[in-house]
Design goal:
Layout (H helix, E strand, L loop, with lengths): L5 H21 L7 E4 L8 E9 L6 E7 L8 H20 L10 H9 L2 E4 L14 E4 L4 H11 L29 E4 L6 E4 L6 E2 L4 E2 L1 E2 L1
Parallel strand pairs: 1-3
Antiparallel strand pairs: 2-3, 4-5, 6-7, 6-10, 8-9
Helix pairs in contact: 1-2, 1-4, 2-3, 2-4
Length: 214
């Protein structure tokens, strides 16, 4: 089906990403969720809210996976890492014992690392893996890095980002850490390295895969 309207394009892409990562990283075990675009504040990239919606006729509940469109100007890999971060919260709600609202406990951090995302409270290596505000970066050669490269190489894109940032609340989950200067990029397969601006989208000529931050 060709998605023609802005609504179809952005929500269809997020649904495609959810299905892709559910299969690659979670063995298609995650239940469906209602994906939304929300603003919780300038410091929030996304959040998970369990049983947020109730069916009008059958009174069944579904969880919410929300993304902040203001941050869609980041690289696709960074945006999708946030998306999977929230999917891990959903996994923990259904298959593990989640901690208090907004907190990232040891079990959550363990699952993140299992699927190839390194938790960190600073956005950089060496940060705390548990806490109220935790970010992540792809582990070179990890499941997420390979799966994300595959999805992007298949033509996945988010064609819309927010033009003017407007906020109506305070952040509750993933903080924004502005990075300046150069960062390290790594091929998820052969571990070839390069240095460049955080906004770059680089590709390994040998493996034909997009480089990930590392």
């Amino acid at each position: 089906m060709i998605m023609t309207t802005p609504t179809e394009q952005i929500y269809g892409a997020l649904e495609t990403a959810y299905t892709h990562f559910n299969q690659d990283l979670f063995g298609t075990k995650l239940p469906s969720a209602l994906i939304t675009l929300q603003r919780k504040g300038p410091k929030t990239m996304g959040y998970f809210s369990p049983e947020r919606f109730l069916g009008r006729s059958n009174e069944k509940t579904t969880d919410e996976v929300a993304m902040n469109p203001m941050h869609f100007g980041r690289t696709l890999e960074e945006t999708l890492a946030t998306f999977v971060h929230e999917m891990v919260h959903l996994w923990q709600k259904h298959f593990d014992k989640p901690s208090r609202g907004g907190y990232h406990n040891k079990d959550w951090a363990k699952k993140m690392k299992e699927i190839g995302l390194q938790p960190t409270d600073t956005g950089e290596p060496g940060g705390h893996v548990t806490g109220q505000s935790i970010q992540q970066y792809p582990i070179p050669g990890g499941l997420f890095a390979v799966s994300c490269s595959k999805l992007i190489d298949e033509g996945f894109e988010l064609v819309w980002k927010e033009a003017v940032a407007q906020f109506d609340g305070s952040g509750i989950d993933t903080p924004v850490v502005e990075q300046k200067g150069r960062v390290r990029w790594i091929c998820p397969t052969c571990s070839a390295k390069a240095w460049g601006k955080p906004s770059l989208e680089l590709k390994c000529a040998k493996c034909d895969l997009r480089l990930v931050r590392g």
